[in-house]
Specification:
By secondary structure, this protein is an alpha+beta fold. The chain has two domains: 13-55; 66-145, OB fold (Dihydrolipoamide Acetyltransferase, E2P) (Beta Barrel). Helices cover 36% and strands 23% of the residues. The chain has four helices and four strands, in the order αααβββαβ.
Length: 149
């Protein structure tokens, strides 16, 4: 290779100072986004505490894990599940949440797997759905289910 020819695999920017400036700008934007996220999380945490909530409860005891529920009830039909309602205590992280008016779907994940919950406003204590459930972020939650459906 002569001095004039360049290796095709090397991508040398004709404007190294601009490339470096762009990289630094992207890093600064990422830092600002992370700082904003931290502010939002702290704000939500303070709001939860002001409303008497406990951010990280330690007194909740589950009686089942998601994998056990899926293994035992995953293949049953809606009719079979409604015929024998089951009350469970499941703990895990809320991974997704889709709020649709008076009802919502969410996924709770624990160490054994992930399970989908169908939550209705009328099945929860008064005002809990609007004042707490809809505001929950992706963090650890404890949930008490009435039925496995």
């Amino acid at each position: 290779m002569s001095e004039i020819e360049h290796d095709e695999s090397e991508q040398v920017s004709p404007y190294p100072l601009i490339s470096e400036a762009n990289r630094k700008l992207k890093e600064q934007e990422q830092i600002k986004e992370e700082q904003e996220q931290i502010k939002q999380r702290r704000s939500k945490l303070n709001e939860l505490r002001e409303n008497g909530g406990i951010a990280f409860p330690t007194d909740f005891r589950r009686n089942v894990v998601a994998g056990e529920l899926l293994a035992e009830y995953g293949e049953k039909s809606k009719e079979e599940l409604e015929a024998e309602p089951l009350r469970v205590k499941l703990a895990g992280r809320m991974m997704t949440r889709r709020v649709m008016g008076k009802a919502s779907f969410c996924h709770i994940q624990d160490m054994s797997g992930k399970i989908q919950l169908y939550v209705t406003r009328d099945a929860l204590p008064e005002s809990f759905y609007n004042e707490q459930f809809k505001k929950m972020g992706h963090r650890r939650h404890r949930r008490r289910g009435r039925r496995v459906v």
